[in-house]
Design brief:
Helices cover 33% and strands 29% of the residues. A hairpin with a 2-residue loop joins strand 2 and strand 3. The protein is an alpha+beta fold. The chain has one domain. The chain starts with a helix and ends with a helix.
Length: 145
């Protein structure tokens, strides 16, 4: 239930657009490390698609450190998984720097979040994040406080 709420919340927050610029060969099933992070966040590319004229990269981010975790929200954990977050290609390119795995299986929880977001975006009720992953995570966690 919490994951569904976070997925819907991310969909609603993600309004805006930016032009895409191709610099790296991003592919579905790749796992990347977050640029400059001392944590172990893993960014799994679940779906790449064109929405209008914008290339959108939908990702699942695991091992996300939660600042000042609320024990009731995380059941005592200090990291969480964001099952689906859509980014512009450029925002993702500006956020990652090391490809660590290829051909990973996309977990079901990604698809659950993706379907909710895709319905919302098709109805004009959601968009994508155009800021970097770290900036987006800060906005999400600050809003959830």
């Amino acid at each position: 239930m919490i994951r569904s709420i976070v997925a819907v919340f991310c969909a609603i927050l993600s309004l805006g657009c930016a032009p895409s610029i191709s610099a790296m060969n991003l592919q579905e099933g790749q796992v990347w490390l977050l640029k400059g992070s001392s944590a172990d966040e893993r960014i799994l590319i679940g779906k790449i698609e064109m929405i209008g004229e914008l290339e959108v990269v939908s990702v699942r981010i695991s091992d996300v450190p939660v600042p000042d975790p609320d024990p009731s929200f995380l059941n005592g954990r200090s990291t969480t998984v964001l099952q689906h977050i859509p980014f512009s290609r450029q925002a993702l390119l500006d956020s990652v720097d090391e490809l660590i795995l290829d051909d990973q299986v996309i977990p079901d929880d990604f698809w659950e979040g993706y379907v909710l977001w895709k319905e919302a975006v098709d109805n004009g009720q959601a968009g994508i994040f155009t800021e970097t992953v770290p900036k987006t995570l800060t906005v999400i966690f600050n809003t959830l406080r």
